[in-house]
Design goal:
DNA polymerase, domain 1; 5 strands; binds FE2/S2 (inorganic) cluster; alpha+beta; Ubiquitin-like (UB roll); five-stranded mixed beta sheet
Length: about 160
């Protein structure tokens, strides 16, 4: 057994798990953060994406012990003060989801993508960056629209603050 200590959604947490426990299972089973989904066992679907130290990772490809000491944000930690994060709001506004299974991973990937590109995102880049996230309902079109809309909104907010 290994001891894992993390900061998750701003809260210090710790727990014991087997050495082989994946971060996604630690989040879901030890911390009851079931918004992070498991959609495959081949690290292809992206339903499990969270942020580790600010960068998106597939949490099924990281051992919980490897993540120990890091800061993790899950989909449950994105909204603040009862307000949806702009990416969540854009997915809602632009119908970027149907069944919703892929949505937490899509949203976490999109937030990291928008942060990294500093507002300079185009459709081709969004589609390329979403290659690691599979959606079997939407056909991706409205997801891409939502990411671009959120990017415009978040970038405008940044410009206004500068
Ligand atoms: S569960 Fe499918 S990539 Fe992680
Ligand atoms: S909305 Fe159903 S898998 Fe994407």
């Amino acid at each position: 057994m290994a001891k894992v200590t993390l900061t998750v959604n701003g809260r210090a947490v710790s727990g014991e798990c087997e050495d082989r426990t994946l971060l996604v299972n630690f989040l879901r089973e030890k911390l009851a953060l079931t918004g992070t989904h498991v959609g495959c066992d081949t690290t292809q679907c992206g339903a499990c994406v969270v942020h580790m130290d600010g960068k998106s990772v597939k949490s099924c490809s990281v051992l919980a012990v490897q993540a120990s000491g890091s800061t993790v944000t899950t989909i449950e930690g994105l909204a603040s003060g009862g307000e949806l994060h702009p990416v969540q709001a854009a997915f809602k506004e632009h119908h970027g989801l149907q069944c919703g299974f892929c949505t937490p991973g899509m949203v976490m990937t999109a937030v990291d993508m928008i942060n990294r590109h500093g507002g300079a995102l185009d459709e081709a880049t969004v589609r390329h960056e979403l290659e690691g996230n599979i959606c079997r309902c939407t056909g991706y079109h409205n997801i891409v629209k939502a990411v671009l809309a959120a990017n415009a909104e978040m970038h405008a907010g940044r410009q206004a603050a500068e």
